[in-house]
Design brief:
- 35% of the residues lie in helices and 26% in strands.
- The radius of gyration is 20 Å and the shape is globular.
- The strands form three sheets. Strands 5-4-6-7-1-8-13-12-11 form a nine-stranded mixed sheet, with helices on both faces. Strands 2-3 form a two-stranded antiparallel sheet. It has a two-stranded antiparallel sheet with strand order 9-10.
- The chain is built from ten helices and 13 strands.
Length: 373
Amino acid sequence: MAARILSVGTAVPETRLSQSQVRDFFAVQPGIDRLAARLIRAAFDSSAIDSRHTVIAELGEASAHEDGVFVEAASRELHAPSTGTRNALYRREAPALFAGAAIDALVRAGVAASEITHIVTASCTGFFAPGPDFRLVRDLGIRATAERYHLGFLGCAAAFPALRAATRIVDAQPEAVVLVVCAELCSLHIRSSTDPEQIVASAVFADGAGAAIVTSTPPRVDGPVFDIGEFFTAITSEGESDMEWTIGDQGFEMKLTAEVPRIVGREIRGVVRTVLGGDTEPSTVAAWAVHPGGRSVLDRVQGGLGLADDAMDVSRSVLREYGNMSSATVLFILQRILADEALPDGASVAGLCFGPGLTVEAARFTRRVAAAG
């Protein structure tokens, strides 16, 4: 039998920030002149984001009693911790997000942790070893013999390579049950800046985790599943220097230029034509799971493919409620599409993600209403 996604689980940190709250916080930092303040307000107000989640609880406190790693209590001034300090927080906070999304996916699928035979994890916002894959085995009761694979630094596009790897495993070993988990703590790398590209990064990135159970074995519970179709990857003809993710002395540095939406808009139709087949029109796809790198990226995808406004509704709603959680974001979108009872049995679903390079990752799914086997 073909590989399928039995369930999708998600998790976010407890601290929820309103976009206006974060905007005002950045706009009054030392060294922010009037021009930079105007850029900050424009970037935040045009982001189409209402709220985001973060592992940095002190960002959400109007007045803390003690100085934090990132924020001075009295002045609310943003500190600039070293990369080592930020990564230490990743090591402390990331395992709970990985586990939260994984448990949610396991419960939704009716799969016991002891049934997991393989783990594929993805993250680009921190590193440690033994890593998140090891912690999932130790903390969730997954068998010690489960094979583990970690995909690092693939950026926002990593979920589809992770699902593709899980699918290849299931194709080779039909009895395999693969746990895929993507978790990102983007907020650990925030900084005060007058640079327009850094301001945009501060306006959109957030923390969250998504997980999926991939197998060809029968579903454990009644309900919708995704049959997994084809995957496709491509590097655009330009854009290598427009989306970059490097390690600096004061955190990871994300470069996201204004060219990215334009490149996506210009090249997306050719990519999608290859994914769907030359004779298939994008408008015939029942649901779209498009990674919301930002509002302008969704606008360019919609315009480039000639899609109706409602085709982007799920992607836009996830962006509005959670921001850009890098690799985890598209799993939040797939979770909502999977739960959409308005979609008929056999509905076609197309997914698009964009990562450094500029790399486009695409996937096709079919939503099925399945009975427990």
